[in-house]
Amino acid sequence: MSARLEELDFQSTPMGELTLRRRHEPMLDVDVYEVKLGDEYLMSSLFTVAEEELARRGLGVVDGDALNVLVGGLGLGYTAVTALHDSRVTSLTVVDTLPAVIDWHERKLLPVSAELVDDPRTHLVQDDFFALMRAEPAADGPRYDAILVDIDHSPRHRLADSHGDLYSPAGLRAASRHLNPGGAFALWSDDPPDDAFLIDLATAFASSAARIVDFDNPLTGGISSNTVYVATT
Question: What is the DSSP letter of 98?
């Protein structure tokens, strides 16, 4: 049995104090990995169903083989690793603005780190995902078959004000320019489906939908829900 609570890493970042810790959950007899930004919990390895569904549902609407996939937000790595489980994926680029998060995986501190970084299809990139989406794609630059985003809590509850333009009609149209024809843009949200955001998605993409993902919550004994938005060019 591991220690009840162990701090694996602590770093000051432009967004606040970032902490990775592992604790033992005696009720379930499992080790839980958690990330905090300041006093706010960002993610937990207890709740990964929706992050995995983000990859499955985003890739599920894409036809073809030799898929080039971009993941915005590395986190605990579950979205990225689930994308790698799709045998059609030949290249996976994961962008995170925080060097510390990339370092955790390169040091193989997290449960899926080895599977992620040891796969030759994986490319971890430290950069501003939102700036990449704003930029006009270079004529010889990459286009993606799927862009999977799990960074903010929701389109309305963001970690930084500078992220806001991505969720506007203009920002979504800018993101769509980075997709191949028939490509998918998929977004995780901690909030229920947002009708206003769905209207904005519809201005930028040929089709769009919000899917509720239910999962067991072992801490409450009930069911919790997240939302996955999927839109296609």
Answer: -
Query: Nearest to residue 56, comparing CAs of 216, 191, 188, 224?
Result: 188
Q: Where are the beta strands (DSSP E) in the chain?
A: 5-13, 16-25, 30-37, 40-44, 67-72, 89-96, 122-126, 144-149, 179-189, 207-217, 222-232
224: tokens are 């919790």
DSSP state string for 25-76: ETTTTEEEEEEEETTEEEEETT--HHHHHHHHHHHHT--SSSEEEEEE--TT
pLDDT tens track for 194-221: 999 999 999 999 999 999 999 999 888 8
User: What six digits make up the tokens of 164?
Assistant: 């806001």
Rounded Cα–Cα distance for residues 145 and 67 (Å): 6
Architecture of the structural domain at 48-232: 3-Layer(aba) Sandwich (3.40)
pTM above 0.85, yes or no: yes
